[in-house]
Fold each of these.
Amino acid sequence: MTALSKESVESLESPLARSVVVHETLGSTQERARELASEGAPHGTLVVSKVQTGGRGRLGRRWGSPAGGLWMSLVLRPGISTQVAARTTQAAAVGVTKALRSFGVEVRIKWPNDLLVQGRKVCGILAESSVESVPVAAKKVGPGERRLVDFIILGVGLNANLDPRDLGVPGSEVATLRSELGRDLDLLELLESLLHYLDVELGRIEDFEAILEDWRTLNCTLGERVRVTRFGEVLEGVALDLGPDGELRLQTRDGIVELFEGEVEQLRRETA
Ligand code: BTN
């Protein structure tokens, strides 16, 4: 096992780890990466912490982050529009899934970006953008402003070398790489693989249809009856497909609804 340190991570020479910060304990790598990005940290700044005391998940939820997991956030400065930036979540889900599969873990993606092993969550992904409005010359693009993404903070929380009970949530809901593989993985090797596959997927983000094709192959949501909670509203139906921007097309009794966010719960077929 190689210890995760600034030196060992930098030795990977990944374009996504040009500037590396490794902490023993931190509130949240997501918050630290955001602070660094606000101070001008470049694309490829990577913040890792062995423990997080205030790890954050989607929808403001707490994210348990004891020792043994891989808790990391990346500063991305893609220089792209908000529309393309919104694709980061799914590109990252595909990249992390491919990385975990390369270690023999049969991960599937639950829309939009939870990674599950046999229905239990093993990894969460959180992509948060900071947008700046750039005035554009009238004769070039038309009057007004174009919204550009200043930076994206891409957080990955991977339950790696720990037991499900260490995470403080009901064991039937979570998995860890240890519980699936029956052994621990070298976190540096794991990180190397994650950075490699993330770089590949983010590098082809302009070809989003190709990423969505892989997402379709790797997912466990499409074709299922699901209940989706979105802004307090609950919808039920069959998850039909993804639209061109990664939105979920849900066949409800009242017609097809397109969802850009929400929490999906898979329904048992017999109760649907
Ligand atoms: C989810 O709700 O599924 C997303 C979880 C994201 C957790 C990661 S752990 C590293 C980074 N730091 C945080 O505080 N959150 C993200």
Note: The pocket of biotin is lined by residues 28-30, 52, 55-58, 61, 63, 65, 71-73, 114, 124-126, 155, 157 (CB under 6 Å).
Amino acid sequence: MAELAPYAANPEKSRGRRIAEDRPEGRTEFQRDRDRIIHSSAFRRLEYKTQVFVNHEGDLFRTRLTHSIEVAQIARSIARNLALNEDLVEAISLAHDLGHTPFGHAGQDALNECMASHGGFEHNLQSLRVVDLLEERYGAFDGLNLSFETREGILKHCSAKNAALLGEIGERFLKGRQPGLEAQLANLADEVAYNNHDVDDGLRSGLITLEELRSVPIFERHVEMARAAFPEISGRRLIHETVRRMINSQVIDLTRQSLANIEKTGPGDIDAVRESPQLITFSAEMKKAQHELKQFLRTRLYQHYKVTRMSAKARRIVSDLFHAFTSDVRLLPAQFQETAEESGNIMRVTSDYIAGMTDRYAIREHRRLFAVEEIAL
Ligand code: MG
């Protein structure tokens, strides 16, 4: 790895793990975090969880797993340009969606509604819960016992109410401070990844068309660039040549603007970063271009009636499951019944169980509980 900038997260100076462990041999603390995340079961489940299109709608759409890998790729490229810690930015990127429910935002909204009078449900907080508590892999502790900097990056948003319950990791939400630059970067790399792959998946699904997208200035500009390079190009190649140029422009913009911000503020170390305003940012022009693209995706893709119908079904599945389990604990798998008894909190245990489901597992579980023609249990 290239030399780290003074404002980068340094694994030698990590704020440490909740439960102290010996230093790893042959790898840094942040590499160890990344390795633990990749070997977790929550990470493997990302393969069958989706954001916009449900898993069974097509084999070529992004899943949360491929999304997380794309985020890590984009974040690492920029981290290298800014001399930030690539291992940390990769660990945060790969873990950032671990707490997502099945069926993307529809699933999360439904679960949050079900949990409204029991503390609610936030997917960022759930990602932290997965790595702090829910993974069962080690003899010495619950969860993955990750370092502070990785956990800080995973907890992207948090309500003040929940932040107050989290101790050190929640402090910045109460004091209005920033996380380290690697966390700021993973957050924006997430945006670059999903805005662009939603364009690609949206076109693939046929719910939006190339002609419609040309009304979005940033898309139109890059279509023209692709056509100038390859006058005969059309179809999928044109889409790919356009999308890869859009990603590249955003990566370059983010790198340049962030370098300028860092130069201007001149933070001496990660603690000075935490006290500074957000330093990893797009330029004002790029923010405007992204806003226009997001508006288009919201109204034309995320609110497309076919997506809306699937989302309604997804919400119903999550809420049916929640009400079935919480009204009769005996319907939960044995292991969760035990945890519910021990903790005395069937609501949170059910919420953890449902949040951990993949799309297809949730559909199957719903069928097992509700379809009268289903015989096998
Ligand atoms: Mg994401």
Note: The mean pLDDT is 94.
